[in-house]
Amino acid sequence: APATTGAASATTSAAPATAVGPSADAVLVRRTLEEIAPVADRVTSYFYALLFIRNPELREMFPAAMDTQRDRLLSALLTAAEHLDDAPVLTAYLENLGRGHRKYGTHSAHYPAVGEALIGALVRYASTTWDRETEAAWVRTYTTISQIMIDAAAEDERSAPAWWHAEVVSHDLRTPDVAVVTLRTDQPYPFLAGQYTTLETPWWPRIWRHYSFASAPRPDGLLSLHVKAVPAGWVSNALVHRARPGDVLRLGPPAGSMTVDHATDTGLLCVGGGTGIAPIKALVEDVAEHGDRRPVDVFYGARSGHDLYDMDTMLRLQKTFPWLSVHPVTEEQGRLPEAVCSLGPWDERDAYLSGPLGMVRRGVDALRGAGVPVERIRHDFLAELTPADQPRSGACIARTPSMLPSR
User: Fold this and answer.
1) Is residue 70, in this structure, part of any structural domain at all?
2) Which of 87, 187, 197, 307 is most open to solvent, judged by the fewest CB atoms within 10 Å of its CB?
């Protein structure tokens, strides 16, 4: 949603610290966040009330239903606060947010208004920890956050549109609730295998959801997405049950860092749950197109064999490439992360996880427990994982969801 974190009207700026220990500002900011965590819903509701009362013209930039947006605001704040002392991770995360906010119509002039509403909400609900020193820390922190986002958006504007129009050219219903949707954009859409896009349908304006690309870049420029309709999922149900060839969607810029490093020959361990197999399939294609011969093991998990809707495709790839091994895992065989670890060791592989948040969280824990170095575990759930789960690696920067929860 537009301006998930706002800029205060201060003009000073502070670069993210790189010290081993937390900076003074980071300590104060995290202390505030700890205090407001139990009343997070009230904080964010009050924030939006302030923002829209003071700036009613901004309301039309947001969806009518604000429940999901409130969650995203808090996630963005927690993610930025958690990584204040990790400049590369924080900068990459915020640059991605800045570029992505262009599709909402966000401009640099909006950031001060959002920041003032944020400070106003914190003043009201962080009554125990709030003081002049804390306010100054938040102003400096938010000024830095907003400036990184503004600069990234300005740079992106010179070379890319704010969004792309994408026509549905085919719609393949694989199961009653899973569809493979193929799109043709109105202009070239540059992306890397393993990345994802944000998508808006004509049926739910201003509601954007994340979906991973299910193939590496193709010569014909077509894009493929795997979409699962989830309960109460407005966008996912529209894409699965309503979209037809000829419909036109809007795409935001590509994002995500769950990509293959072709400068090495390190083997890959890929774990995909449900429609999380989409970016895994793209990674396999990417390895093949670069002529690599590194070993790649793919674990494809679902509730039942019927839910392994793309298994035929993965088995065809396995027959084509001798370096690829595909392992189907259903609930009868146990949980996906535990099944992966039982066939290790994987400590010399680069690990890629894609699927529901709970699966990714369990997978990170299981792989770390099995000796896989944290810097080799890649996913796109930075904002959704708790701080204890978050690898300190630039390879695990934001996305939200179908690697992120998509509805």
Assistant:
1) yes
2) 187
Range of weakest confidence among 45-49, 73-77, 218-222, 361-365:
73-77
Tell me the CATH number at 99: 1.10.490.10
The SS3 assignment for 144 reads helix
Rounded Cα gap, residues 263 and 256, in angstroms: 19
Q: Which residue has the tokens 């969004």?
A: 163
For residues 183 and 223, the answer to whether their CB atoms sit within 8 Å is: yes
Regarding whether 197 and 150 lie in a shared domain, the answer is: no
Q: Which two tokens stand for residue 60?
A: 């039309």
* CA distances to 69, 168, 202, 214, 377 from 205, in Å: 14, 17, 6, 24, 35
- C-beta contacts of 370-374 below 8 A and 24+ residues apart: 370/341, 370/344, 370/345, 370/346, 371/344, 371/345, 371/346, 371/347, 372/269, 372/346, 372/347, 373/347
Does residue 148 share a domain with residue 204?
no
Cα separation, 238 vs 171, in Å, equals 12
Q: Does residue 314 form part of some domain?
A: yes
Query: Could you tell me where the DSSP H helices lie in 59-131?
Result: 67-82, 87-100, 110-125
Query: Do 222 and 284 fall within a single domain?
Result: no
CA proximity to 278, closest of 233, 321, 314, 320? 314
Which CA distances in Å does 159 have to 97, 152, 195, 402? 17, 12, 19, 27
Domain span at residue 125 reads 24-157
DSSP string, 245-303: TT-EEEE---B------TTS---EEEEEEGGGHHHHHHHHHHHHHTT----EEEEEEES
Instruction: Kindly report the CATH number assigned to the domain that includes residue 312.
Output: 3.40.50.80
Query: Which of 196, 224, 251 is the last residue in one of the domains?
Result: 251
Torsion from C-alpha of 99, 105, 111, 116, nearest 10 degrees: -140
**What confidence tens digit (pLDDT) does each residue in 117-144 have?**
999 999 999 999 999 999 999 999 999 9
pLDDT at position 70, please?
Answer: 61
